[in-house]
């Protein structure tokens, strides 16, 4: 249930959900979960204050670190194109995008 996950993004096991979506080759859903994982990690590190009512632009504006803000903005654009724009991706393109989301997670935890 997307609403439940969104309401509780700080507590959800997103790694499990990402792996499930990947095993079903549901790449748009995996990208959605990777986006949530970025938000979750930004929240854990104190870069944003999670609130499901806030927009991605709110979160971009909250991130004071310019590099992280730019990376999150780029990832948000990918998420929006794939999830809302229904932009089709194959395994190769998914792996490319997944690397972007994981790169942000690494930068957050550095």
What this model shows, in words?
The protein is mostly helical and 110 residues long. The chain contains 6 helices and no strands. The chain has helices spanning 2-7, 14-23, 27-44, 56-62, 66-84, 91-109. Helix 2 runs antiparallel to helix 3 (27-44), helix 3 (27-44) packs antiparallel against helix 5 and helix 5 runs antiparallel to helix 6.
Outline, from the CA principal axes?
globular
Residue fraction in strands = under 5%
Radius of gyration: 13 Å
**N-end to C-end Cα span:** 32 Å
Assembly context of the chains: single chain
Low-confidence stretches: none
The arrangement of helices and strands along the chain is HHHHHH
Which structural class matches the secondary elements? Answer: mainly alpha
Number of strands: 0
Q: Given the structure, what is the number of helices?
A: 6
- Taking all residues together, what is the mean pLDDT? 94
- Proportion of residues in helical segments: over 70%
Mind summarizing the main beta sheet?
none
Characteristics:
single chain, 110 residues, mainly alpha, 6 helices
Topology:
Layout: H1 2-7, H2 14-23, H3 27-44, H4 56-62, H5 66-84, H6 91-109
Question: Could you give a short description of this structure?
Answer:
The chain has 110 residues and is an all-alpha fold. The protein has helices spanning 2-7, 14-23, 27-44, 56-62, 66-84, 91-109.
């Amino acid at each position: 249930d997307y609403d439940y996950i969104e309401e509780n993004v700080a507590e959800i096991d997103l790694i499990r959900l990402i792996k499930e979506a990947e095993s079903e080759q549901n790449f748009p859903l995996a990208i959605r979960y990777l986006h949530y994982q970025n938000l979750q990690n930004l929240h854990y590190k104190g870069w944003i204050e999670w609130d499901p009512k806030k927009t991605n632009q709110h979160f971009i504006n909250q991130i004071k670190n310019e590099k992280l803000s730019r990376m999150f903005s780029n990832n948000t654009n990918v998420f929006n194109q794939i999830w809302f724009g229904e932009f089709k991706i194959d395994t190769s393109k998914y792996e490319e995008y997944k690397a972007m989301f994981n790169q942000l997670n690494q930068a957050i935890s550095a």
